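[recover] target loaded
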């Protein structure tokens, strides 16, 4: 698995910090990363963003931050 995506609850504490850590880790480990467009105002990285409804098309794994994953449906 070489393509990860990040979605998350924007109002959760430390969402920015967790997202940045995952982005840095993925870049250091040659993993392609996408973030949902909702995260762009918090962390930037518009160049790796994807629409929430389409992010799954670009990823092998989706990481859900701050939730139980019910938003994945």
């Amino acid at each position: 698995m070489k393509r990860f995506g990040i979605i998350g609850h924007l109002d959760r504490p430390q969402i920015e910090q967790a997202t940045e850590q995952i982005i840095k880790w993925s870049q250091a480990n040659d993993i392609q990363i996408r973030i949902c467009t909702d995260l762009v105002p918090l962390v930037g990285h518009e160049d790796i963003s994807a629409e929430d409804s389409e992010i799954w098309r670009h990823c092998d794994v989706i990481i859900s931050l701050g939730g139980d994953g019910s938003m994945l449906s």
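[recover] notes: The chain has a mean pLDDT of 88.
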